[in-house]
Specification:
- The chain is mainly α and 139 residues long.
- The chain has one domain (2-137).
- Helices cover 88% and strands 0% of the residues.
- It contains 4 helices and no strands.
- The protein has helices at residues 2-38, 43-77, 82-105, 111-137.
- Helix 1 (2-38) packs antiparallel against helix 2, helix 2 (43-77) packs antiparallel against helix 3 and helix 3 (82-105) runs antiparallel to helix 4 (111-137).
- The two termini are 29 Å apart.
Length: 139
């Protein structure tokens, strides 16, 4: 029973993050301009953040939607399904794309290197988990 509650909680948190991503996307220009003015940063920082975050947004949203679908599949059908392996691969690809975008942006604003490293780690973790589960199923 606790496992079912954990998965339902994960689905709820995923839905919350989707809503927060939408709010973040809409409010980003205001938040960035406020940050640049308050912290007395270069005006070019605002452009760098906007040019980095907006291309990442659809991939972040796709990853969250795939995660939501994966969790629902696990809840209804179990983990070891071919569709779930495909969803894990899609989430991994989204993480790699975000990592690549933020890696390039790190040349202009150092904290994006940390974001890139985080997404590379998540992609590696998912790739490894997917491979391990796939081997387990096909033995």
């Amino acid at each position: 029973m606790d496992k079912i509650k954990s998965i339902k909680l994960s689905i709820t948190v995923t839905n919350i993050f989707l809503v927060l991503l939408l709010i973040f996307t809409v409010c980003l220009p205001w938040m960035v301009s406020w940050y640049v003015e308050t912290m007395r940063r270069s005006a070019s920082l605002a452009a760098t953040v906007l040019v980095t975050c907006y291309p990442c947004t659809p991939f972040a949203a796709a990853a969250l939607i795939f995660l939501r679908k994966l969790l629902k599949n696990v809840l209804q059908k179990g983990l070891l399904r071919e569709e779930n392996f495909s969803l894990m691969k899609k989430i991994t690809v989204c993480c790699i794309i975000i990592a690549a975008i933020t890696l390039i942006a790190g040349n202009f604003y150092f904290p994006f290197f940390l974001v890139s490293a985080t997404f590379i780690f998540v992609a590696l973790l998912l790739f490894s988990l997917r491979a391990a589960l796939y081997v387990t199923v096909n033995e």
